[in-house]
Amino acid sequence: MKKISLKGLDMTLYTESLSNGLEIYMLPYKNKKNYYVSFATRYGSDVLEFTEMGKKNYKPPLGIAHFLEHKMFEQESGEDPFSFYAKSGTDCNACTSCTCTQYMFWGTKNFNKNLEYLLRFVTHPYFTDQNVKKEKGIIAEEIKMYNDIPAYKAELKLRNCLYKNSPRRLDIAGSVSEINKITKEDLYTCYNNFYIPSNMFILITGNFDPDIACEIIRNELDSNDRRKVPKIKKIVEPIKVNKDKEVIKGNVEIPRIGVGLKIGTKVFSMERFELSLYLDMMSTIVFGDSSLFKERVRDKKILTDLGCGWENIEGISTLYVTGNSIKPDDLISEIINEFNNINVDEESFNRIKKVWIAREIKGLDDIECMADNMCYDLIRYRKVITNKIDIIKNMKFKTLKDIIKKIDFKNYSIVKMEKE
Questions:
Q1: Which of 101, 130, 244, 408 lies most in the core, judged by the most C-beta atoms within 10 Å?
Q2: Domain 2-221: CATH superfamily, name plus number
């Protein structure tokens, strides 16, 4: 096993790669009683078409990655993984994103048996015509439920305005018509192509013995079967927004707004993680809780709530500014005015740097938070960023100003949701 120091955190990350390509990442704690385990594949809703194991191109129904996650909990033995883990007072779950599907469990007891069980149930799919048909009704209800949530509906519409080709404009769960096309053969095809060791990793944090954990994983999964990940069809997304503005109706008492700023990132000559920090710094100074913007719109009584966050795809970063307001047009105008007059100050820059460093140190105490952060690194950067504190410390105010000068702040989309 390799040992890597997490700089500034006094922690050691243990890593191992099996002969079949499976990656193992372990962060043991001496002062914790609990543990957290994630078994993940780099496969999510972003994959719309791929070359099936060297054969012809294959285009599965939309939403199949999420459908597959649901069906992995159906075991041929009839045993429900949720029930298995509940017996030992352990929790388990799974989630599908645009880029990843994870199967997790967390608890305080029976680590060895729980790990063995996770590895077995994720590597032994069981799909039949009958259990696939049953799941369609369950997922259809889930899709309808989310489509009735105003914030979700508004965000999806904003994505449609921002993106022209990218799968980020689509619902991760697909549509009712698409999931009704899914067959057990579709599920096995996607599983056999993407649930392969060379496309997966295991991440463990908390109270456990890394030597024992690694031995369990080797015994269950090590082999010489190192298959290549299929070639995924590349989708080119233009930097220009797809649509400037759209007004929709929804079940809202207070109108909801969303403004998305689309930024081409290839003009910036720096590592993606470092660039993400600078972009996050800009949005935190401008729209964060202690920003002059928030203070101003609160004083004008046009703000109910406001949030912002970033999304990244190849060559593009997108800032989402969303919220509710009894005066939605005024709030939108204030946001656009802020885009047109971006102003960052060095005092806020230095204060936020200190907050971020403290956050990194504080986050170390939460094993689930550490696992989430490392999982994000592994999906986005294909490695764990082990010197985050040093990178934050070395951020320069001049660099932030130079980045802001290169951004086209007129490349935005607007969505407004009014009461039905």
A1: 101
A2: Metalloenzyme, LuxS/M16 peptidase-like (3.30.830.10)
